[in-house]
# Entry
Amino acid sequence: MDVEGEDVSRRLHVKFVTKLDSPFKVPVNSVAIPSNVTRLGLSSIVNSIIESDNPEWKTEPFDFLIDGELIRMSLEEFLLAKGISAERTLEIEYIRAVAPRKEEEPSLHDDWVSAVNGSSPRFILTGCYDNLGRVWSSAGSCSHILEGHSGAISSVAVINSKDAETVTVATASKDRTLRLFKFDPDESVDSSTRVRAYKILRGHKASVQSVAAQKLGDMVCSSSWDCTINLWNTNQSTSEGESVSVKKRKGNNQADESQSEGEAVTTLVGHTQCVSSVVWPEHDVIYSSSWDHSVRRWDVETGKDSLNLYCGKALNTVDVGGEGSALIAAGGSDPILRVWDPRKPGTSAPVFQFSSHSSWISACKWHRSSWYHLLSASYDGKIMLWDLRTAWPLSVIESHSDKVLSADWWKGENVISGGADSNLRISSGIAIS
Amino acid sequence: MTKKKSKGADDDKMIETKSKSVSGKSQKQKKPVEKEVEKEVKSLKEEDLVQESATDSDYDGDNSPGSLHSDDFDSDIFDSEDDVTQGGTEDGDGESSEDELHDHEGSIDNEDDDESEQIDSDNNEEDGSDEGSERGEAVEESDSSEDEVAPRNTVGDVPLAWYEDEKHIGYDVAGKKITKKEKQDKLDSFLASMDDSKNWRKIYDEYNDEEVELTKEESKLIRRMLKGKAPHADFDPYAPYIDWFKWDDAIHPLSSAPEPKRRFIPSKWEAKIVVNYVRLIRMGVIKFDKPEEEPNVYLLWGDDSKSDQKSKHLTYIPPPKQKLPGHEESYNPSLEYIPTEEEKASYELMYEEDRPKFIPKRFTSLRSIPAYENALKESFERCLDLYLCPRVRKKRINIDPESLKPKLPSRKDLRPYPNSCYLEYKGHTGGVTSISTDSSGQWIASGSTDGSVRMWEVETGRCLKVWQFDEAIMCVAWNPLSRLPILAIAMGRDLFFLNTELGTDEEQEVVKEMLHSGNIPEPETSVAAIVTWLPDELHGGIKTRHFKNISSIDWHRKGDYLSTVMASGETRGVVLHQLSKKKTQRLPFKIRGLPVCTVFHPSLSYIFVATRKEVRVYNLLKTGVATKKLETGLREISSMAIHPGGDNLIVGSKEGRMCWFDMDLSSKPYKTLKNHPKDITNVAVHRSYPLFASCSEDSTAYVFHGMVYNDLNQNPLIVPLEILRGHSSKGGVLDCKFHPRQPWLFTAGADSIIKLYCH
# Structure
């Protein structure tokens, strides 16, 4: 054996492939690289290859996958850890690195920002501890203020944004009510217009913690400290029950006649403690997480829970997404973000556990289009982007100076977050293919 | 009188007759002495005429103490004779004795002697009647009575001059000093001796520093010895000789016959036996044991601890094993054994114990090896070792200390329990003295020394509400009913009921009605001096003013009654408030001692009242004495918490101890945990999880697993789980409360922060 060739590092024959479009493509040739390069080394190699073809190329960070797993150490160590032979030509797939490239101006609120929602690409919806909801068309420009609550807003949801003109949103508050608002996000005004709710949903006996809307937009569900999940109708005037409540409440609400009241259509009972979060990803399936340490899946038709995952910790947030929109991610009163796959038979153990945070997790959201990406926000002031293909966070956003209370994706490539520093922060330029 | 004695007396008579010559001599000696006596008697005559009564003593007193005259002995002999032969001569008196004395003076012959003997006996009759019994006893006791009684003084046979100048004469058996008796004045002692009829019999014992009064027997003994007779009367020097030798047919005791020949020639029969033995040995019938062979090689460095040395000696301690010498101890070891300069320098830096004992060195020849430098030191140490060597073999008990620990389940199996702090509630500007969670666990209220009461959202750490007061807050307590979101706050002498404005609208109406200040009824006269109910305009509630500062409050489980404790209120220190009727009543029993805190039983109508050293359990429905008294054994109780089952109570004390009481078991603590180095400020028990906690001024909180079993035969299981640190060391942790539904612990620190420890 030749001793001198082995002294510094061995050489590997690799081939770079990608699913990215033309400017990012490199010729499919095998190149020999030293085995001790890390992601940064690989990224600079790929950049230099592209640059050799395209002189106007601007350096772009890349992430690399071997057999569907992200490389987070030196190539040699990675191959050793995974038991992959270095003899044959390696095929390395590269993607654009997922990291925010730009930090937008913070949008200052009067109080803690307790909820953000970015499900509509046209605007950002936030809820605040000053009892007001706000609509932001872009960073720093507040178009609408949603008023009427007498308690801090705990959660906001966009019900219907498909309609061209007006959109419907719902806010949940600690004053035990939900309010539905209608506004036109595109109306261009200099100062923010104040909007009053067209419908007040009463029925919870304690603070409402979370609200989620059905895809079609006829119904919303809400979870509360009274251990229940209530389902409500959103439309203005179909139900006769509402008119009754209007009459009953007339004395109080003489000022604005337009407001109607709604009562819960169905109540889902089963949790034994505060239901902290609900999501409504499919037509008749609701997922909920609770402080009784469980995640439940509810069948809307029957009102029964069809799945009960026990976690052992009080949970604050839940989201469903990923591969086939079936993975359940939840975080709570410990720094671990857990992901379950309910399709896996016979086990209720989480399939992924991400534990880089140092405090409670306040929010987690799957990326709407990617199967692999999700974000988590924590009381330690950090937002972390995760890829299921590696156990390390892809990037850590440390823009908040205090607890992050809520975070969401916006328009596919931005992360919006609100926290106890009363700011809405937008981290943009996250390249998720 | 016993027969033996009379016989002895007869013997005396006989002896006297036999040794007349001796007695004659003694009588000759008597003469000059008697002249003295005569003089003295004459001088005493006038006295006697004046006082006739004390003649006996006078007569006896003639003789100076210690001087023994044969005359006295004579009279003594007569005494003893009289004891036997005395008839009706009791009429003798002083005058007759005087007559007899004159007789003595005049002619001394046997007949006179006989008479005088009789009269002397009369003289001594009064004594005799007393002493007769004593003497009898003395005789019974046998003559070796002196040997049996150990001397009082234990100094031994030393010159008594050594103790002349000391205050003591020696030491008794217990080793204590025997002090000298006070010496009487010579004149006093003389006068005393004049008065004492028995004085002539008294001898001063210098050795024991006491006066010994001789008994009759003893004086008789002395007299016999003076006469040159055997001291004991029983001894017969002239006993008939018994010849034990038989003189039947011999004129001489030994034979003079010549030795027979057979004594000089060897025995034929023995020779035959020897020949037989030789034959048997040659034939091999008789075999001898082979001589034991001494092993000529032995294991020089072998382990001799197992050798038979052990069996030979009872306490054989094998010598310590030395390490075998290796190459490095050679005078010229290989180079690799020699330490380098750096290594030598590193040895210098090491502690002396850790330094290697031997550092190899190289020498070119044996001749150049110096003398062993430590020889003197080591021989001295060896001497020290021998001198300090234990004389007794110590039996060391070889027990693994781990095995002495009680077998407790692993902490991992007892999850969940609070262990790490994730949330902090910041906002107070002074130390947080008290916290309380509402029944759902959504809110937590805290009171601080800065006079503010804050209400926090547990989930986010958001401060929702602040009430500002003038003084430091002592206690906060949520109403245990979720439909009555009322906060009770103790501040100084006032107890406030605050409306937290949580809950549904209907609930709010009830609360507002309850806290409406208009309908406060007239107080009962029995409590008017203690408590007054007043409206509280500032915070829109009601307050009650107590006559002393409130130290602790506790809600009853039904949310209507509230007990307040005033530490300095003594017997009136505990009162019960009824919120719905706005009434106050005193406890229907008297409290002994200073109350510290109270706790309501979680399901029954009992109240636990902790005074400084004890906890008493009272039945609220019955007036009278305590149903149970729990002896804590603590110096000062600081806090108390009850298990939700109601049968177990935890008491924390200011000396850092915590007691767990099992009420079914005993009134003594089931377990006492000494965990905190400083005062325990509070203890808490979880409502549903088997957890309890204590917090202390040492700024830590301890979390324990406290499992109570339904099975009465099984004792509660207590396992320490976690020490929660994090609060700054100044002032410590002032309160701790469990979350009502989660296994979480809130701790309130004097550093103005509330921390939430999660599992």
Notes: The longest helix of chain A spans residues 39-53.
